[in-house]
Design a protein that fits this description.
The protein contains eight helices and no strands. By secondary structure, it is mainly α. The protein has three domains: 34 residues, no CATH class; 117 residues, no CATH class; 78 residues.
């Protein structure tokens, strides 16, 4: 499925207008195209905010993606033994992320959307540090979770040959300890994000279950009303 303007426009609408607009668009299509559009889910607040940063504030989006790629390259370069300024790249990325989150919030608030700030920051951080953007960029329906190990997948620290001085060995040990600590923190962050996503999913399931129970009760009440009305009609006809 391509990226027609009408389809992109769905994800810039206020969330409460998404479903009706999606269904209207699906009716103008046929076959698999109609099914694909009909299957699109309404974005949650965080996904909506990320989408609309992409569509409505491309300068901030591009600045964040550029800073994220620069940080990723610096980290990989350091692991390969190249001289890179990871600290400077980290600071630039942090600044770009802060600006992007702030702008996304401004856009969201203007539309009456209220995303979770931490989740939004993690999603934008994950996208900026990924090896490549997903195909559905601008059309996210749910939060994209961080995957810290992906950026460094397959990268091996540079081998050091010859006789190393005691200070060099200590420096290598220090760098390895710092990298191990960083990877542990990223793993813990991913765990926290996954646990939060699980809680959100359970809450959504409970809400849907309660809504279904209410709907079933309404159906039963309506059936009883119909039966009572039919009984009155038959009584009057007798």
């Amino acid at each position: 499925m391509g990226r027609p303007t009408q389809l992109d426009d769905l994800f810039t609408l206020p969330p409460e207008e998404f479903t009706a607009a999606r269904n209207a668009l699906a009716k103008t299509l046929a076959g698999d195209a109609a099914k694909d559009v009909k299957a699109l889910r309404k974005p949650n607040a965080v996904a909506w905010s990320a989408n609309n940063l992409y569509w409505k504030a491309r300068a901030q989006w591009d600045a964040l993606m550029k800073a994220g790629h620069a940080l990723r390259d610096a980290q990989i370069g350091a692991l390969k033994g190249r001289k890179t300024d990871v600290r400077a790249a980290t600071e630039k990325h942090r600044e770009a992320l802060s600006h992007a989150v702030k702008r996304a919030h401004e856009i969201a608030q203007a539309a009456g959307v209220h995303p979770n700030t931490d989740q939004l920051a993690r999603m934008l951080d994950a996208l900026s540090l990924s090896a490549g953007l997903p195909d559905d960029v601008g059309r996210f329906s749910d939060v994209v979770q961080p995957s810290g190990f992906d950026a460094l997948a397959g990268v091996k620290p540079a081998a050091h040959h010859g006789t190393a001085s005691s200070s060099s060995r200590d420096e290598l040990k220090k760098k390895k300890a710092e990298e191990d600590a960083k990877l542990r923190r990223e793993a813990e962050q991913r765990l926290d994000a996954a646990q939060e996503a699980l809680r959100d999913a359970r809450e959504k399931a409970d809400t849907a279950k309660r809504a279904l129970n209410r709907a079933e009760a309404d159906v039963r009440d309506a059936e009883r009303e119909v039966e009572a009305a039919e009984a009155q009609v038959k009584k009057r006809e007798a």
